[in-house]
Amino acid sequence: HDWGFILLGLGAAWNVANISKGSSVVIFDFGTVGLSVTQGGRLRGTARIIGVDTNAEKYDKAKKFGVTEFVNPKDHDKPVQEGWGVVVLVNVPNKDDAFKTHPINLFNKRTLKGIFFGNYKSRSGIPAVVEKYMKGELELEKVFMESRDQQGVRTHA
């Protein structure tokens, strides 16, 4: 259900990457998880939220959630994932999938983290998310509608 994906995105932003005010965030997806990461970054006061997608039409929708810049990797010769910082993997791979990286990447100021259920403890972490929603700080309905529109499901406002 979408609630799990929202907690995954918010948890990736707050509990794992620990996004801080003035930082930059790069998001490679604009589904429920990516839009939730965007909201988490916006609420933490990030300076830049950069969206990466090969479909430029997604930029206008992503801007509504706080994406400040958009990069189409097809417009660049150099890989957009080169750099440093914290990488949070939020996708659930198939059992036969493999993740490969060169060991030198671990010495170049890079951090790789995984996440499960947003790394929330249900009794202590979830009430804080609900409180932010009740205060109107999280726009969950907007995320639900936007992600369903992207999946081709008809929605009504």
Automatic annotation (TrEMBL):
The keyword Zinc applies. Its cofactor is Zn(2+). One of its GO terms (molecular function) is S-(hydroxymethyl)glutathione dehydrogenase [NAD(P)+] activity. InterPro entries: ADH-like_C (IPR013149), NAD(P)-bd_dom_sf (IPR036291). It comes from the Eukaryota. Residues 33-79 form the Alcohol dehydrogenase-like C-terminal domain. Keywords: Metal-binding, Zinc. GO terms for biological process: formaldehyde catabolic process. GO terms for cellular component: cytosol. Gene3D superfamilies: Medium-chain alcohol dehydrogenases, catalytic domain (3.90.180.10), NAD(P)-binding Rossmann-like Domain (3.40.50.720). PANTHER family: ALCOHOL DEHYDROGENASE (PTHR43880), ALCOHOL DEHYDROGENASE-LIKE 6 (PTHR43880:SF5). Homodimer. This is Alcohol dehydrogenase-like C-terminal domain-containing protein. It comes from Kingdonia uniflora. The lineage of its organism: Eukaryota, Viridiplantae, Streptophyta, Embryophyta, Tracheophyta.
